[in-house]
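Subject: mismatched residue count in predicted assembly?

I count 559 residues in my input, but I want to confirm that the predicted structure covers every chain. Input:
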Amino acid sequence: MKALEIKNVSKTFGGLAVLQDVSLAIEAGERRAIIGPNGAGKTTLFNVISGVTPLNSGEISLFGKKSEHLPSFRRARLGLARTFQQNNLFFNLTLLENIHLALLPHKSPFTPKEFLEDCGWWEKRDVLVKELSYGEQRQVELLLALAQSPRLLLLDEPTAGMSSVETHKITSMIRNLSREITVLIIEHDMEVVFDLADYITVLNYGKVLFEGTQEEVRSDKRVKEVYLGTAD
Amino acid sequence: MKQRWLRFPLIGSIVALLALLTSPLILTPYGLSLMTQVLIFGLFAMSLDLLVGYTGLVSFNHASFFGIGAYTAGILVTQGYENFWFTLLAGVTVSLILAFLLGTLVLRSSGPYFLMITLAFGQMVFALAWRWRSVTGGDDGLSGIPRPELGLPISMWDSQNFYYLVLAFFILSSFILWRIIRSKLGRSIIGVRESESRMQALGYNTWAIKYLAYTIAGGFAGLAGVFFVYFNGFISPQQLDWSMSGLVILMVIVGGAGTFVGPVIGAGAIFVLQNLISAQTERWSMSMGIIFILCVMYLRDGVVGYTIKLSKKGLRNYESFRNKKRE
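Triage response: the counts match. Full output below for your records.
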C-alpha cells in the first residue's frame, strides 16, 4: 500500500513556479529523503502535502484517500505528522503541556507521563519549552510529531543547526522508529541522508530531477552538478 | 515548595470571596454602587479575556454582545415582560446567537484584519441600535428600567440585595469560565494562542476552537449586559460603541491578559481611577489614555501578570538562597 502518492502537483507564488508537475509515490514503511539546493521547493512540497499551503493543480493521496482538498487537521487525523523547519512549538507552555496537547486529539494509548518517561524526557517535564536549548527544541519538534502516533512522518531538516552529538542522537531516534511509520525527510546533511534513507528524490527548481537509491544518486552526474558537487 | 506555591491561588480565592461577601457591610452606598459596577464590568472583561488573553484574538466588537444583552433585557422589560429569569435567558440567548452568526464571518480573518472586521461589525450593530428608533429608542436609548423582580420576598431596589445577586452570578460565571479554561477545550484554546499552525498539524480544527471561544465569550458578555441594564436603569447606543469595546480591552490589558482574575482587577482599577481623577479634573479621559500608554510600555503583563512574575522570581531567589545556605 502506498502511504503517499502525489501526481503532477504544481504550486506558484505570484509568477514564481515553486513546484512544477511533481509526482512521487512512497510505499508504506519506506524511508525517503528529499534533497536539493535551497529554493528547490522542498519545504513547499511538505506544506502542500500537509495542507498548510493549497496547491494549484495535481492530486495527493494519503493511504489511498484523496486528500488535496482536505484541511491540514484532517490530514493529521489520517496519520500525517510533521516537524517544521523553524521550531514551531508552544513556547510558553511546559514540555508536559506540549506533549499533552499533542496526545489529546489522537486517542493515544500513552499518558503524557508514560510518553515522556518512555522517551527519557520526564525530568524536563516542568521546563518551559522556550527555556530549552535550540537542540532540545528541535528534539521536542520530533517528540510532538511522534506523540501523534503517526503513520506518515514528514521531517523538515530535523538536524538543522544541531551539534554533532545532538545530530547523532536525533538520527538514532529516527533510525529506530518502527517500520509501521513511513518517513519522508528533507535534509542537507548527506551523512544523515545516507544513514536513514532507502530511496532519495532530488528536487531542483521545483521539478523532480532524479530519483534513485543511494548509489544511483551518488553516481548521477546531474545530481552532482546541481547539489552534491564534484571532487574537482 | 511547589505544592505550597500552588496553594496561593486557592488561599487568594478564599480571601477575595470573603472580602466580596463582607464588603457591603463596610462600604458606603456610593462604594457599593462602584463595587457592583466593578463586578459587572469584571465579568464583561473576563469574557473578553477568553478571547484576548487565552485565544489570542483581539476583538473590537465585544461591546456588541454586552449591548445586545442589555438591549434585549431592556426592551423586554419596557414591553411588560418583567420576569427576571426570562429576560436574563433572553439576553444571554440573543447575545449567543449574535456571536454565533458574527463568528462565522469575522473568524475568516486573523491578526489585524480580525481586529478591523470586528470593529466594522461592532459599528454596524451600533448603527442599527442608533437608527432603529421604534425598538431601541435611537440615540435617546431606553430608560426607566426597574430593578429585577425575582419572585422572592426580597427587593432588588435594595442596593445590598442587588449587589449579592450580581455577586452570585459573578461567582457562578467565574467558576464556569475557570472550568472551561481548565478543560480540554481550554487547553486547546491556549494552544491556538501559542501556535495555530502547530495545532492544525496536530489534528485540531482550530477554526472550531476559535468559534466556540468567540461564542462563549459573547454569551458571558451578554450576561454582563443584562445586569448592567438592571443596574443602570438605562441603555443607549453608547454601550455598543467601539469606545466601550476599547474600554473593556483596557481593563483586560491593565489587569493582565490571560491571568483569569486580572481583568476584574483591571475593571476595578479603571473605575476607581476614573472616579478619583474625574473628581480632580475634567480631563480625566486624557489621564486614562496616559495610564494606558504607560501600561502598554512598562506593564505589558498587566498588574496581575507582573505580580505573578515578581512572585515567581522571588520564589526562585529564595530557593537558590536556601540551597546556598544548606551548602
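The CA atoms of residues 23 and 96 of chain A lie 39 Å apart. Marking this ticket as 'not a bug'.
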